[in-house]
């Protein structure tokens, strides 16, 4: 079957690693299934940078501040920061609209896909005025209204979202069902769907991941008295200082410490459990890889619903704190079969469903 579109633009931003991961997952899937489509990944900052008031007067970018906070585990104050950012977007909305409209007057495309929150009202206006289909693919399992992912007043925003958490929210906002595409979970890179045979059956393997920038919380975990029959893998991302600190620890537990790596899908398939921050990306990567997930009841406000999602689907443990981590690891290893059964009931094909929708429908 031939695609109905020739070109798709995917708008992302560099705040955290979830948005760019979602964009790359969709890009990779489109290239595999629909190679005739030209896919453009566009950092919205590159388009709107000249009207960034924060950068103009302070020299600082919001994304850089946010990533600095995440790297150091500073999550308090993020909600007030978001409200300030949303207020600035609303106040300078006409300037942002003009800049984005001008960009798309000179860069024609068949479809605009957003994998970012906060800017969807402006993107929807531009897309409507230029008669271009607009789809928001949520990179979170739930919305954090108002003005985050879903825009009820936008008549042309198609919303792709999790059927158990976000779809009820959309219906409560009176968004028509014709503008909702229900899916199971968020988009996961196609590499995670490839099967990998486990190499070492004589040892348990635990994987610790905290997004693309790591977290000092990983250092706390590495200092714990992990049983010696468990090989721990720490993925520190773009955080060389963290990698060096964990590598230099004198501990009895066997470990591997890496920075940013393209081998995460393989590592996850080799693991018996994953420990990390409850971001929607890592949770759904665990679902696809069929690996239990362990986290703690401590996260950013927009990810709070993810904890309920883990509990509801019984795919791991949400510990009150990592003071109970060793008990959590023991529980996962003793109940591996049960967790595998629970994971097997969730069929996340979101990225493939979205790719086909874009190619066949738009």
Describe this structure in words.
Helix 13 (304-313) links the parallel strand 11 and strand 12 (316-319). This protein has helices at residues 18-33, 44-48, 53-58, 62-71, 78-91, 93-106, 120-129, 166-172, 217-222, 240-247, 264-270, 280-289, 304-313, 325-334, 336-344, 350-360; strands at 7-12, 38-43, 111-114, 134-137, 157-162, 180-183, 204-209, 230-235, 255-258, 273-276, 293-296, 316-319. By secondary structure, the chain is α/β, with parallel strands linked by helices. Helix 1 (18-33) crosses helix 16 (350-360).
What would you say about this model in short?
The chain has 362 residues and is α/β, with parallel strands linked by helices. The protein contains 16 helices and twelve strands. It has two domains: 7-184 and 348-360, Rossmann fold, CATH 3.40.50; 191-344, 3-Layer(aba) Sandwich (Rossmann fold), CATH 3.40.50.
List keywords for this structure.
six-stranded parallel β-sheet, alpha/beta, Rossmann fold, single chain, 2 domains
**Amino-to-carboxy terminus distance:** 14 Å
The CATH homologous superfamily of the largest domain is termed Glycogen Phosphorylase B
CATH class of the largest domain: Alpha Beta
Low-confidence blocks of residues: none
Q: What is the N-to-C order of secondary-structure elements (H for helix, E for strand)? A: EHEHHHHHEHEEHEEHEHEHEHEHEHHH
Shape: globular
* Helix-strand category: alpha/beta
Rg of Cα set: 21 Å
Strand content: 15-25%
What CATH architecture of the largest domain would you give?
3-Layer(aba) Sandwich
DSSP helical segment count: 16
Largest sheet: 6 strands, parallel
**Biggest sheet, spatial arrangement of strands:** 2-1-3-4-5-6
Mean pLDDT: 92
How many β-strands, per DSSP?
Answer: 12
Helix content: 40-55%
- Give the number of domains: 2
Q: If you consult CATH, what is the topology of the largest domain? A: Rossmann fold
């Amino acid at each position: 079957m031939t695609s109905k579109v020739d070109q798709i633009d995917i708008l992302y931003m560099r705040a955290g690693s979830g948005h760019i991961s979602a964009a790359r997952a969709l890009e990779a899937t489109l290239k595999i299934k629909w190679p005739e489509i030209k896919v453009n990944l566009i950092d919205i900052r590159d388009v709107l940078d000249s009207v960034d008031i924060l950068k103009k007067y302070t020299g600082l970018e919001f994304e850089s501040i946010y990533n600095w906070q995440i790297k150091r585990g500073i999550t308090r104050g993020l909600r007030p920061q978001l409200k300030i950012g949303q207020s600035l977007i609303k106040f300078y909305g006409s300037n942002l609209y003009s800049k984005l409209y001008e960009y798309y007057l000179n860069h024609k495309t068949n479809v605009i896909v957003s994998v970012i929150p906060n800017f969807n009202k402006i993107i929807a206006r531009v897309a409507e005025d230029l008669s271009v289909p607009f789809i928001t693919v949520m990179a979170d399992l739930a919305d954090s209204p108002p003005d985050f992912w879903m825009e009820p007043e936008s008549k042309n925003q198609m919303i792709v979202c999790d059927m158990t958490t976000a779809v009820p929210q959309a219906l409560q906002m009176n968004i028509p069902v014709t503008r909702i595409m229900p899916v199971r979970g968020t988009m996961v890179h196609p590499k995670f769907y490839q099967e990998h045979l486990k190499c070492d059956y004589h040892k348990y393997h635990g994987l610790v991941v905290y997004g693309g920038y790591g977290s000092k919380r990983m250092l706390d975990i590495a200092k714990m008295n992990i049983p010696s029959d468990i090989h721990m893998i720490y993925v520190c991302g773009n955080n060389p200082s963290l990698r060096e600190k964990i590598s230099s620890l004198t501990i009895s537990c066997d470990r591997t410490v890496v920075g940013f790596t393209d081998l995460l899908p393989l590592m996850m398939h080799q693991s018996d459990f994953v420990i990390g921050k409850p971001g929607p990306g890592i949770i759904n990567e665990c679902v696809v890889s069929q690996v239990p997930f362990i986290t703690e009841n401590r996260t950013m406000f927009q990810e709070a619903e993810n904890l309920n999602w883990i509990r509801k689907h019984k795919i791991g443990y949400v510990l009150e704190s990592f003071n109970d981590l060793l008990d959590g690891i023991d529980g996962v290893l003793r109940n591996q079969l049960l967790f595998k059964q629970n994971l097997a009931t969730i069929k996340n094909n979101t990225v493939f469903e979205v790719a086909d929708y874009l190619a066949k429908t738009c």
